[in-house]
Amino acid sequence: MYLRFLLNAIFILTVIACKPPSDERLPNIIIIFTDDQGYGDLGTYGAIGYTTPHLDKLAAEGIRFTNFYSAQAVCSASRAGLLTGCYPNRINIYGALMPWSKNGLHENEITIAEMLKQKGYATGIFGKWHLGHHRKFLPLQHGFDEYFGLPYSNDMWPVEFDGQPVDTTHRKSRYPVLRLIEGNEQTDTVATLEDQATLITRYTERAVRFIEKNKDQPFFLYFPHSMPHVPLGASEKFSGKSEQGMYGDVIMEIDWSVGQVLQALEKNGLTGNTLVVYTSDNGPWLNFGNHAGSTGGLREGKGTSFEGGQRVPCIIRWPGRAASGKVISNLAATIDLLPTIAAITGAGLPDHKIDGVNILPLILGEPEADPRDHLYYYYGRNNLEAVRKDNWKLVFPHKHRSYIGHAPGNDGWPGKTHQDSVGLELYNLRRDPGERYDVKDIYPEIVTRLKQLGDQARKDLGDELTGIKGKNRRECGWVE
Which member of 75, 86, 314, 476 is catalytic? Predict the structure, then answer.
């Protein structure tokens, strides 16, 4: 009893120490968000064949999460969840928006950038947006002061997997030229694989410039890389440098990019007052073979609600305030970043309902902290495919993409996938993170408890698999 009291007292003093006085500058916030990087694709998560020294150092100086989840295992939905703190189906963003899509993030949704503008933050995004390419949906209309990058995925272009332009009979001929946008206007195009190979460096140069420009005021830097989503491209600095080929080259260049950001912080005396988050939008696109990453043994990959699709690496560093060199196994997700940043900065939360929880107690090392009680795995338009509580995951019957049983592609070309189906299944993720052994018949009481959580989700958000509409979903934005 006395020990618990002492630990809690230490935590309270730590929290007080972490709140800056009114005359002290608020902390800078950096979120580095990669695309299709798997759970096993960093040195500290078991990667082999290439090195990630800057990220390994970041983890040694900060926190590494082992049960951290993207909002959904696909591009646009995962970004919507990260920036708004909502399950993406709550705000009606699902799948991957296309260059001909007429929808995007609604103007009434509050992003992390808009929230931090209330506190006087400079805000910038350099990289992939993918929440609507029409002007009304672009970052400058959602709280960002600066934007440079691609409006959607880097494979949405009229170019074949070998880098050759397609003719008018090809299915990819529907795609327009891939645009690079500065602010609200196109300033360049990405037309070749050689152009793709410049993206990591170009984004990084802009991110570093943003840090240096705003070194005297608090800033929020959102840095969503276009890679390692295919098509891959590494600059001459890293091309051919890894044992894992092009994929390893790209991860090494992303690691270099992280090093450049950290170096800019150090150079400008900002390291101690900057919270850095590094995570991925979803798991690897496995059918691309040697141009795809690793799930670290988790089941399936991108585009599925199995662990390989939605569990992602996450590292958080906040020198002198967050714990250092610690591994956290508690449940957490990208939707938790917005309320956590609000707690750190004193920014007001949105008036409407969000789904994220404040994980600052975990970051600060509060004894017995466990803020996230459960997690819903939605996919597709609005399909509740699984729910997790503690180490238990109940998978509901649904059809899903599967990579199993097919030889993967090679050198940028995809292999096959197929549609499979799954019934009601229960997994103990502590003993079986690969979701290979269904134990629902052994633990019927756990099944009942998780079914009740699923029923709560359906009442709130709906579920197309069971035909339930839900009461609390909002609309996305549309253009005429």
Answer: 75
Determine what percent of the chain is predicted with pLDDT higher than 70: 95
Q: Residue 416 carries which DSSP code?
A: -
Residue 480: in which H helix or E strand, if any? none
Q: What pLDDT is recorded for position 21?
A: 40
- Asked if 130 is an active-site residue, the reply is yes
User: Tell me: the pLDDT tens digits for 30-62?
Assistant: 999 999 999 999 999 999 999 999 999 999 999
Statement to judge: residues 138 and 170 lie in one domain: yes
480 — pLDDT class (breaks 50, 70, 90): confident
SS3 230: coil
- Residue 20 backbone zone (phi > 0: left; psi -120 to 50: alpha; other: beta): beta
Out of 54, 106, 130, 229, the active site residue is: 130
| Nearest to 342, CA basis, from 178, 118, 189 | 118
Residues 300 and 417 in one domain: no
Residues 396 and 271 in one domain: no
Give yes or no for residue 380 having a pLDDT over 60.
Answer: yes
218 and 233 inside one domain: yes
Same domain, 382 and 364: no
86 and 144 part of one domain? yes
Last residue of a domain, one of 338, 373, 408: 373
Judge if 381 and 364 occupy the same domain. no
> What's the whole-number average pLDDT of the chain?
95
Domain CATH code at residue 365:
3.40.720.10
- 267: pLDDT strictly greater than 60: yes
- Residues in CB range of 347: below 8 A, 6 or more apart: 115, 116, 118, 119, 341
Number of H helices, E strands in the chain: 11, 20
118 half-sphere exposure, CB direction, 13 A CA radius: 13
DSSP state, 396? P
Q: How many domains does the chain have?
A: 2
| Angle at CA of residue 116, ends 347 and 106, nearest 5° | 105
Residue 396 lies in domain: 376-472
**Residue 398 designated active-site:** no
155 lies in some domain: yes
The confidence score (pLDDT) of residue 75 equals 98
